[in-house]
Specification:
alpha/beta, 25 strands, 8-stranded mixed sheet, Glutaconate Coenzyme A-transferase
Length: about 450
């Protein structure tokens, strides 16, 4: 098969390719760093010709051109699978909405529930076998493209080629159009700045709980990043990686010789993840590196897979939690922040692992824009807040004031444990609240 000839037959301009989009279509932009750039710009230029075009994306790294016009919402509706700060800005503009999901289920959503009229996304250049790599995001892309009526690829020479499972590449024979973009640098995700004293205090409580040979999952945010940096400087050895999102902290651990994956029951020696975003250091590290392995998210986040990985350690953030142990990691009341993502998957999967532990970490307080300090441990979740992790699934909760294990505790024991790691300034009020809620029992503590 002459792949180059086929490539040339399907090669076109972004302006020509997006002419396939019609009013009322569902258009998929892929995921995170794979969102199109040249195609997005060309589609935005057709704004006045189109109505009710519904676009899907997630973990958006830059403002799409289709969302920039003042009247963009008259023509396009943005639907995000997981919100970044950019997604929140699109929602604030009134043209964006969130699509709730447990991330491990997303490929199945496409297989069973969704239609895709046009899919367009950035990929690597084609190899000699006619394949394009999905680069940094395996995620759900194979199933999304399987459902697409029209597939348009935007080639970017700066996208790293990542080795992985089936579902990480697409062949030219399965593509309708190819566009050669301007090869922009891959969007980078900042590390969140220097760790705070609270970040360090939480990390110092969690790192001693990690045994040699453990398999790690880190969420995004300052605390998980600090924990990753501390692991890189620790005496831990022979660690493995099986995570949803691959971040710079894992590269630091690898460079420090901490990651061998020799004890993994699955994918021995490989660092497994569904998608990656970080600095250029990360992108250079994963490029054609046999130590890393991209995989669809219904593999990386499947609790049945996680349960097979002994000593699985899951570390994630929360916005707040209540005295029952319900964790909110995705909204501030009605204000949407992120999404369930894979947090619940990993909370459950880590506990099912032999020797596994799930940690939800957060600072004990948060300071509002008006300077008011509020406790992040609250009597009940704020009306409108989302319960990301139900109380029945939560394992360890960690603040700078301590760590508690909620497994097996009654409601009054949970309240007492959580109040013990709340900020001291709020403990007496939380006790009074717990008494009113009939979940407090006077004890010796």
């Amino acid at each position: 098969m002459d792949y180059q000839a086929m490539y040339q037959q399907k090669l076109t301009t972004a302006e020509e390719a997006v002419k396939v989009v019609k009013s009322g279509d569902w258009v998929d932009y892929g995921w995170c760093t794979n969102h199109p750039i040249a195609l997005d710009k060309a589609l935005a230029a057709r704004k006045d010709e189109l109505r009710d075009v519904k676009v899907r994306g997630g973990v958006t790294m830059w403002m799409p051109e289709i969302a920039k016009a003042e009247d963009a919402g008259e023509h396009f509706t943005w639907n995000s699978w997981h919100c970044s700060g950019i997604d929140r800005k699109i929602m604030t503009k009134g043209m964006g909405f969130f699509s709730p999901m447990r991330y491990s289920e997303l490929p199945r959503f496409y297989r069973e529930n969704l239609s895709v009229d046009v899919a367009m996304l950035q990929v690597t250049p084609m190899d000699s076998h006619g394949n394009f790599s999905f680069a940094l995001a395996a995620s759900h892309l194979a199933d999304m493209l399987e459902k697409a009526k029209v597939i348009i690829l935007e080639v970017n020479k700066n996208m790293p080629w990542v080795y992985g499972l089936t579902g990480c590449e697409i062949n030219i024979k399965d593509v309708d159009y190819v566009v050669e973009g301007d090869n922009p640098e891959v969007a980078q995700l900042g590390g969140g700045g220097e760790p705070t004293a609270v970040d360090k205090a939480v990390a110092e409580l969690i790192v001693p709980q990690i045994p040699n040979g453990a398999c790690l999952q880190l969420g995004i945010g300052g605390m998980p990043n600090t924990i990753g940096a501390m692991i890189a400087q620790s005496d831990l050895k022979d660690l493995g990686v099986h995570t949803e999102m691959y971040v710079d902290g894992f590269v630091d651990m690898a460079m420090a010789g901490k990651l061998t994956g020799k004890n993994k029951a699955l994918d021995k020696g490989r660092q497994v993840y569904a998608f990656a975003a970080g600095s250029k250091k990360l992108y250079d590290y994963v490029d054609r590196n046999p130590d890393v392995m991209a995989a669809p998210v219904d593999y990386t986040n499947d609790v049945r897979v996680l349960a097979q990985l002994d000593n699985f350690i899951s570390i994630n953030n929360a916005i707040d939690l209540d005295l029952f142990g319900q964790v909110n990691a995705e909204s501030a009341g009605l204000k949407h922040i992120s999404g369930t993502g894979g947090q619940l998957d990993f909370v459950m999967g880590a506990y099912l692992s032999k020797g596994g532990k799930s940690f939800i970490c957060l600072s004990s307080t948060v300071t509002g824009k008006d300077g008011t300090v509020k406790s992040r441990i609250v009597p009940t979740l704020t009306p409108g807040s989302i319960c990301t992790d139900p109380r029945s699934c939560v394992h360890y909760i960690v603040t700078e004031y301590g760590m508690v294990n909620l497994k097996g505790l009654s409601t009054w024991e949970r309240a007492e444990a959580l109040i013990s790691i709340a900020h001291p300034d709020f403990r007496e009020q939380l006790i009074q609240d717990a008494e009113k809620m009939h979940i407090w029992r006077r004890s010796n503590k």
